[in-house]
Design brief:
Number of helices: 3
Distance between the termini: 17 Å
Order of helices and strands: HHH
Shape: flat
Length: 46
């Protein structure tokens, strides 16, 4: 996990969610996908 790799602290999935919530973050999932999106350009951005 990214947190463990960068900070040498291990959190469970639930602990990570609770930590992020306490820091003011919230979970949001995409509700749609762009029909005209170019998959190759999307890969290049990652």
């Amino acid at each position: 996990m990214w947190i463990e790799q960068h900070f040498q602290v291990k959190y469970s999935e639930r602990g990570t969610r609770e930590l992020l919530y306490r820091l003011g973050f919230s979970l949001s999932r995409p509700t749609y996908s762009l029909a005209k999106a170019d998959p190759e350009q999307q890969e290049a951005l990652c």
